[in-house]
Design a protein that fits this description.
This protein is α/β, with parallel strands linked by helices. The protein contains 26 helices and 23 strands. 40% of the residues lie in helices and 15% in strands. α2 packs parallel to α3 and α12 packs across α18.
């Protein structure tokens, strides 16, 4: 790969012009950082393909906005920027406007503006168009808009370019579409790829994909500009606390002493929501930001953090690439990300425009289990791909909802699999759904095995980071995980200079944390609608579930991912089938005592269980005994019992449950207009409880309240 040495001869007039643009963009009398002008010169004067690997906050967006403006002045067309998150687009458009660059975005958040944006684009009144990688899959954009853009393209920019690579820590199938666009471009069209998180393997992979399809050109003709990834403003540390309540107590006791406002990352949605609840109860202005947060609310929360109206957002990785608050004062992790590369990216959001920012990791014993779940969750299976291709090969275009009723794959994994198949050319998204292209496709088992192996290597590296020796700098470790060997020991982290964070905990903080973690009871919403597409599975059900056949809102002791009771529930579900432990029984009784009943139960019924018959029956019997209620017994299996897995999608799960439960005469005799407490071990899809409640109500029960130890999700 070439170096920027051949760019040194660029004329001083061009540098002056570029610097004027930089001053307009930043609003300050600033000079270019090392590498910025070299990249701009390569793109504008030499029409090169450039890969920039620079730390977060270095100024990569300045390079592509200035280059876009300078190319337009020289007669080039609009520059297309592919950017991963809406938050980044909003911030970048504001920055571009300050510099006189006409920029607009097309994304799911501004659909009402699309016609206006496209009219501006057709009238050649745009300098920059920002899109998400998912927009490339939209049939209208792909077929009507993209060809016009590519015909008059000034420059292509791929932000967060590590996502192109199979080896990138945040690989997204939608990004793989970009490779085919790059290869189809005229070699004279400049291309810029930017990232802050790419090791040597990712750099080589991305450079190969950026290379023009030319006999005389290759990856070695991609200009790679790589700077040091060390962050002088960050003070890193790891504090290992054995118990969940200690980590929660530490945050509640010491959050107020952290400078400014920041982000507290959690590994799961329930952890984020529970921690935000506890911190608010301790008087902190915080809010949860997760995959369950509505898009409109996300924007409001981001602005609240930027305006310092909250002390922190307690977030999952949903607050990810693209969020930009230059004066972010701290990043704390309750549980570690699965790789040093992911961790570097998340902590890099702190201290961009302040001299000091604190970064602390509070690892948990449950981290490895959570890592392994996510490592495998996104992997398509050969059986699933074959089922999808078979379904699409025998029908007209199918929507994802219709397809879900034909293949035993839940909606999230199904949509991911469709993206993978589309990128590989086996299926295509059209206006009415998905169709097969008829092209042959083979499952690349070796590729997915390699990705899984790499993810597990990264997990081991994250554990190494947590247990660094006293003579190993944490910043150097993170930089070297990204193959940056320029970074020098920081002299500030806890391994360089000793712990900088308090390690003591007041007993009052621990007591409050224990009380918070000890909260029991998770609401379980009742299913109110049958899934679509049941006709193809032999069921005539559709539309709303009749009110006379519905379950009521239910309760579980805890989510399996909860910090407090989650591990105890999970342990009981994974152990040998035994009577319910007294500790969990008492927790279940507390849930019942705190339940705001519309009507108190009259009778207890349990579900039959293949995995935990003793556990479920004993739980129901003991609840009945303590509540002085009759235990009517358990439902019976009909026709061999359920035939679908809880992991199946809604249609298949329901088809495998319907007509496979029966109410015996003994149970039915105790149901007359009764309120039934229906007990099970775990709730995954809610369809088991829905079908069982339907059978009980048809047999005479007046209302049915579902109750379980655990709730998955």
């Amino acid at each position: 790969m070439t170096t920027p040495d051949d760019l040194d001869a660029t004329g001083s007039d061009f540098r002056t012009e570029a610097r004027r643009g930089l001053i307009a963009l930043t609003g300050q009398e600033v000079e270019f950082r090392p590498g910025q002008f070299e990249a701009i010169s390569a793109l504008v004067e030499h029409r090169r393909r450039v890969l920039m690997v620079q730390r977060t906050g270095w100024g990569k967006s300045a390079v592509y906005f200035l280059s876009a403006a300078l190319l337009r002045r020289r007669g080039s067309g609009v520059s297309l920027i592919v950017s991963p998150l809406l938050a980044l687009m909003r911030d970048q458009i504001l920055a571009a406007t300050r510099a006189g660059v006409r920029a607009q975005a097309l994304n799911s958040a501004n659909a009402y503006e699309w016609d206006e944006v496209l009219t501006t684009l057709r009238n050649d009144q745009l300098d920059v168009l920002l899109i998400s990688p998912e927009r490339l899959a939209n049939p209208r954009f792909r077929d009507e808009v993209l060809p016009h853009i590519l015909e008059h393209l000034g420059m292509l920019v791929i932000d967060e370019a590590h996502c192109i690579s199979d080896w990138g820590h945040d690989f997204r199938p939608d990004y793989r579409r970009i490779g085919s666009i790059v290869h189809a471009l005229d070699p004279d069209i400049p291309v810029l790829a930017t990232t802050a998180t790419a090791n040597s393997r990712v750099v080589e992979d991305v450079a190969q994909q950026l290379a023009p399809e030319s006999e005389s050109l290759g990856a070695e003709d991609v200009l790679v500009l790589r700077g040091s990834l060390g962050r002088e403003s960050l003070r890193l540390g790891v504090l290992t606390l054995a118990q969940p309540e200690q980590r929660v107590a530490w945050l509640a006791e010491h959050l107020g002493s952290l400078a400014g406002s920041g982000i507290i990352y959690a590994l799961t949605i329930s952890q984020a929501e529970n921690l935000a609840h506890h911190l608010r109860a301790q008087g902190f202005e915080v809010a949860a930001y997760t995959g369950r947060t509505d898009p409109e609310e996300r924007q409001d929360l981001e602005k609240s953090l930027k305006d310092n109206r909250v002390k922190a957002l307690v977030a999952t990785s949903a607050l990810g690439m693209g969020f930009d608050k230059p004066d972010l004062g701290f990043v704390i992790h309750l549980g570690a990300p699965s790789s040093p590369v992911s961790y570097y990216q998340q902590v890099g959001r702190a201290g961009r425009a302040v001299a000091n920012a604190d970064v602390l990791l509070l690892p948990g014993s449950e981290d490895v289990r959570i890592w392994e779940h996510f490592a495998q969750a996104s992997m398509p299976t050969q059986e699933g791909a074959a089922a999808v291709l078979a379904a699409l090969g025998t029908a007209d275009p199918l929507s994802a909802a219709r397809l879900e009723a034909l293949v035993e794959i839940r909606r999230g994994p199904l949509e991911l699999l469709l993206k993978v198949l589309e990128v590989d050319g086996a299926v295509q998204r059209v206006s009415r759904g998905w169709v097969s292209t008829g092209r042959s496709w083979e499952y690349d088992a070796q590729r997915y095995a390699n990705i899984l192996r790499l993810r597990r290597e990264e997990q081991r590296a994250m554990l190494d980071y947590e247990h660094l020796a006293a003579d190993q700098c944490r910043m150097v470790f993170l930089a070297r995980a990204l193959d940056d060997h320029q970074t020098q020991p920081c002299g500030r982290c806890d391994t360089c200079s000793g712990p900088w964070y308090p390690t003591s905990l007041a007993e009052s903080s621990l007591e409050q944390a224990r009380a918070s973690i000890d909260r029991v009871g998770v609401e379980i919403a009742a299913r109110r609608q049958w899934p679509t597409g049941l006709g193809s599975l032999g069921l005539s059900l559709k539309g709303k579930i009749p009110e006379a056949e519905r379950a009521e809102e239910g309760r579980a002791v805890a989510r399996l991912s909860d910090v407090g009771w989650g591990p105890l529930v999970r342990e009981a579900l994974q152990a040998e089938d035994l009577p319910v432990p007294d500790q969990l029984l008492q927790a279940a009784v507390r849930v019942l005592a705190e339940w705001q009943w519309q009507r108190r139960p009259d009778v207890v019924v349990s579900l039959p269980s293949r995995r935990h018959p003793i556990l479920v029956r004993s739980l129901a019997e003991r609840i009945a005994e303590i509540g002085r209620l009759p235990y009517a017994g358990e439902l019976a299996w009909a026709d061999g019992g359920p035939r679908s897995s809880p992991e199946s999608n809604s249609a298949f799960r329901l088809a495998g449950l319907m007509d496979h439960f029966a109410v015996s005469e003994v149970v039915a005799a105790k149901l007359g207009a009764a309120a039934v407490l229906l007990v099970d071990d775990e709730i995954v899809s809610r369809w088991t409880m829905t079908v069982a409640a339907r059978e009980l109500r048809r047999a005479g029960a007046d209302v049915v309240f579902p109750m379980a130890l655990g709730l998955r999700g």
